[in-house]
Amino acid sequence: MPDFESQLREFEARDELRARRELLIQARRKRHRQQIVLAVLAVLFIAVTLTLVLVTVRRGSGSGAGGTKGKDKDEDATGETLETPDWITEDLLTVNEYSRPGTPLEEVRAVVVHYVGNPGTTAQQNRNYFQNLSLTHETSASSHFVVGLEGEIIQCVPLDEWSYCSSSANAWSVAIEVCHPDETGKFNRETRDSLVKLLRWLVELYGLDRDGVIRHYDVTGKICPKYYVENPDQWEKLLDDVFEEN
Fold first, then answer.
1. What percent of the chain has pLDDT over 90?
2. Rounded distance, CA 115 to CA 146, Å?
3. Which value, in Å, is the radius of gyration of the alpha carbons in the chain?
C-alpha cells in the first residue's frame, strides 16, 4: 500500500492540475469578453464615422446648411455654373418645406418684384423671418433676394431652386423682396439703386426683355409692390432705368 506521503503528493498534484485548468478557463473567458468589447467599439466607430460623413455631405449639398455666408458657385436655369457677384451677400436658408423646399427651378421666364409686409424692417430681419418659418410653420414664404434699406442685397435661396413668393409663378421666376421705410411702399434711393443693379444683372443672366420684369400684382392681382401698383408711371420709370431707356 502506498504510504501517506505518496498519497499527499498525488492529492497535491491533482489540486495543482485543477487550479491550472481553472486559470486557463478564466483566461479564455477574459479574452472572450475583450473580443466582445473590441467588436462593439469597432461597430460604434464605424457608425460614428458614417454619421460624420453623412453630415458633411448634407452640409455641402445644403450650401452650408445653417445659412453660411460667403461666395459660392450656383447654377442658373440653363444648368450653367455661375458665380454670385461680390455685391450680393449669400445667407442661404436651410432646406425646409416652409421657406426653401429645394425644388429645382428648371426655367426662368421672369423676375418678380415684391415689397416686404413690414415697413422699416431690414433685409436681414426679413431673411431671418423666412428662416424661422422652418420652426414656426405659420406659413410658407421666401424669396431669392431681399434688398435692404441701405442698399444691401441678401440672397436667401439659390437660383436653381424655387422660392415661395410668387404663387403660380414660383415654378418659372426669380423673386425679389424689397424693403421700404413707410406705409407708402415707396423705395428709398439706396434701395431703388440696388434693385435696379440687381435687375440688370438678372435680365442679362437670363436674357429677359422688359416684359420679363414684372410685379407680384401682374401675377396674382395683389397690391404688391404697393407704391408701384398705385403709381404705374413710377414702375415704368424703374424699368426704363433697368433697361437704360429714356
1. 65
2. 9
3. 34
Domain boundaries, the chain: 1-61, 73-242
CA 30, CA 154: separation in Å to the nearest integer?
62
Q: Is 64 helix (H, G, I), strand (E, B) or coil?
A: coil
The position carrying cell 491550472 is: 20
Query: In this structure, what C-alpha cell is assigned to residue 96?
Result: 425646409
Task: Measure the CA–CA gap between 25 and 19, rounded to whole angstroms.
Answer: 10
| 76-113 per-position pLDDT tens digit | 545 556 789 999 999 999 999 999 999 999 999 999 99
The predicted model scores a pTM of: 0.69
Q: What is the pLDDT of residue 236?
A: 98
Architecture of domain 73-242: 3-Layer(aba) Sandwich (3.40)
- 30: cell is 477574459
Q: For residue 174, report the phi and psi dihedrals to the nearest 5 degrees.
A: -105, 135
Taking 3-state DSSP, the helix, strand and coil percentages for the chain, each rounded to the nearest 5, stand at 50, 15, 35
Contacts of 16 (CB under 8 A, 6+ apart): none
Beta-bridge partner residues of 200: none
Using CB atoms within 10 Å of the CB of residue 61, give its burial: 0 to 12 exposed, 13 to 18 middle, 19+ buried. Answer: exposed
pLDDT digits (tens, 9 = 90+) for 30-70: 888 888 888 888 888 888 887 777 655 554 444 333 333 43
Max CA separation in the chain (angstroms): 134
Measured distance CA(69)–CA(152) in Å, rounded: 14
